[in-house]
Design brief:
Elements (H helix, E strand, L loop, with lengths): L3 H16 L8 E6 L5 E3 L15 E3 L5 E3 L8 H10 L5 E5 L2 H8 L9 H5 L6 E2 L7 H13 L5 E4 L3 E6 L2 H22 L10 H17 L1
Parallel strand pairs: 6-7
Antiparallel strand pairs: 1-2, 1-5, 2-3, 3-4, 5-8, 7-8
Helix pairs in contact: 1-6, 2-5, 3-6
The protein binds zinc ion.
The site of zinc ion (ZN) has 6 residues, from loops.
Amino acid sequence: MNYLEYKQQVYDTTLSLVDIQLIRLSAGNVSVRLPDGNVAITPSAILYRKMVPDDIVIVDINGNLIEGDKKPSSEKALHTDIYKARPDVNAVVHAHSVYSIAFSTVEMELPLVCVELFSVGGPVPVMGYYCPGTPEVGKVAAEFFATRPRLKSLLMKNHGMVAVGKDLDDAYQNAYKTEIGAEIYHLALQTGKKPQALTEENIQEIMARYQKPQEKK
Ligand SMILES: [Zn+2]
């Protein structure tokens, strides 16, 4: 199949993440699952501002190179393991975003202090530390997403966060919502008071009002 259109989509999403500073330099990576089951993913160690759409690499679901001159992201197993664990997920964003990393270092999950964190299936948990780029990163992250089917993002201790979505726009928004939720939680904690999470009643009301229209999208 012709991968050009999908390479362009991954390129555009990555640059959009650079624009909002969720991804800086070459730290972080983006992928989309393709109709033929393969995966289009950002290349390893290229400054995204200098990347071109054709630098996006195509790998199969096991991370083997299908097409491309560049080396696929060193976190390709993080992406492919999540696709294997969650058939509803068609795009993955991994970012080294600062507020998410900060909370991961103290192993604090992100409670439901705002609707953004509710919409990513929060409270957003923190997975343990594993050396970046090793198979353990993908294995453990995929287990979190497999056991919590509503979960759309995860903090990675001392490393970053990973967000998933039904398509690239959805994964992009879920990454943003997670980072903005972490920033809001951080700001609230600065008051010295305990931030209050949405109550069960608040959640029921939100679901009654918004869940059906969201599902129709
Ligand atoms: Zn990383």
